Amino acid sequence: MRKIMQAATLAAASLAATAPALAGNGPDGYPTRPVTLVVPFAPGGGSDNIARYMAARLNERTGGTVIIDNRPGAGTNIGNEFAARAKNDGYTLLFGQVTLAINPFVYKSLRYSVDQDFVPVAHIANSPTVLLVNASLAARDVRSFVAYVQQHPREVNYGSGGAGTSVHLAGSLFNTQARLNMAHVPYKGSGPAMADLMGGQIQAIFDTAPSAMPQLGGGKVRALAITGPRRLDAAPDVPTFAEAGFPEFDAPAWYGILAPAGTAAAQIQYLNEQVNQILQEPETRKRLAQLGSVAVGGTPQAFGTFIQQESKRWQAVIQAAKVSLD
């Protein structure tokens, strides 16, 4: 038996020594091992849906394996910080959200810097925010919802995918503009928040369109309005907030891929090219539209400029809403 085991071990070692190394289609065979895409939300939400679709398409194009790593909590700070502290070898990426432009202004202290700890890779998509209510609620449109909340002070709770997220701030901003007093209930992602909305534990939710769209038509939730200048093709019956009488209300979301600062420029460029090719495919644009998003793309530099512009815009919103978190 000992001789048989020794022979098997020697055979395995011989095969390992002669087998070709795994190699992708990028520079120097990148990726030669699995790439982790960190999603700072729980599974099942809008961000997770888009991230998983992009990971599957990147698998096909790069010849490698992209693995989703969900790290929810603390308004995406847990996932963001994990990615910021990862090795800058191209094997850990962050599926970044609009919270990258928000968190520096709502949290008193962050253990990462968006400007110093990350380098932009590619801008994937933009999407509006949707106000949904439990189907049992009497409100059928935004105005009747506002009237209902005003008639039931401190009785209406709205959920979001986390404290400090764009959807949390959307609710806070709407509270201010509509002169309401809804209480905020944060969750570790849109999935758990949506589950409680459907179950009636909360009465309303501000959510990104990619997370909200799959729930429409199921009879448990009702979409009252979306942000943005126009209605979505995937939900043509849902009016914009402007049409509903609140033209100043806007709280869009966006998604993109970033890498730890210092990641090789060749890897960044390669990933950017692959993402842009994916976003140009009709099937991808159709899929993103079904999720209530619009494909963007562009250079890493353009994405970096966009993040800076978003930071300035959200800073003004946060200061007006007077939102601050520990």
TrEMBL record:
InterPro entries: BUG (IPR005064), Bug_dom1 (IPR042100). It comes from the Bacteria. Keywords: Signal. CDD domains: PBP2_Bug27 (cd13578). Pfam families: TctC (PF03401). The keyword Signal applies. Residues 1-23 form the signal peptide. Belongs to the UPF0065 (bug) family. This is Tripartite-type tricarboxylate transporter, receptor component TctC. It comes from Paracidovorax wautersii.
